[in-house]
Amino acid sequence: xxxxxxxxxxxxxxxxxxxxxxxxxxxxxxxxxxxxxxxxxxxxxxxxxxxxxxxxxxxxxxxxxxxxxxxxxxxxxxxxxxxxxxxxxxxxxxxxxxxxxxxxxxxxxxxxxxxxxxxxxxxxxxxxxxxxxxxxxxxxxxxxxxxxxxxxxxxxxxxxxxxxxxxxxxxxxxxxxxxxxxxxxxxxxxxxxxxxxxxxxxxxxxxxxxxxxxxxxxxxxxxxxxxxxxxxxxxxxxxxxxxxxxxxxxxxxxx
Length: 255
What we know:
- InterPro entries: Spore_0_M.
- Pfam families: Spo0M.
- This is Sporulation control protein.
- By secondary structure, this protein is an alpha+beta fold.
- The chain has two domains: 2-134, Immunoglobulin-like, CATH 2.60.40; 138-254, no CATH class.
- The protein contains four helices and 14 strands.
- It has helices at 2-10, 138-149, 215-223, 243-254; strands spanning 17-22, 26-27, 32-40, 46-63, 66-80, 83-85, 90-98, 112-120, 127-134, 152-161, 172-180, 189-199, 202-211, 228-235.
- Strands 2, 4, 5, 6, 8 and 9 form a six-stranded mixed beta sheet that branches.
């Protein structure tokens, strides 16, 4: 029977299982993710070489002239060295790790999850997936609020493949697309695309200001994609009281 159990465990039947409990499912980039990993032994004793947590999201990229979505690992954390789990034994392993500052916000199509894996030799590694909600930091939230105050509405948000100078640690950027629905920029701009590059002391903001075509010259510029201006600036939490004025001034220079 023991041999049969070992054979079955090697293909995932009656083997150890894993379940991760994350204490808080809503977090901001840079915060600590805390929880416990619960392991339950199967029908036979098994050696677990390592327990690891991986942070995943998805992004859109172009492949063979098609737009596809791919999963990508944005962080990996090893919890323990090897251990032995006996039949039906239960173990709980606490964990804590820091969310990367460039973890995307779970807005629009973007999802973020933690995958827990057990590395077991000669067996199917059991795994568990737990989704978490990534919300704006106070500074990012203040930028969103300022754009709303200026009359912009968020139309779309997604993670897309980054190229050239826009590629940092990760092969994608999270782009937020706003449209002016009221206020001073309605009728002047078609849209405003915003990307955040978070730093320890603030956020570098990249804005692409898409001016509305007016007259033949503007229509020609739009046809040639010359009606867009790219601007970068940095803000910090000290700027929050004046953020609406700062952002409004930046956009006005290019609208």
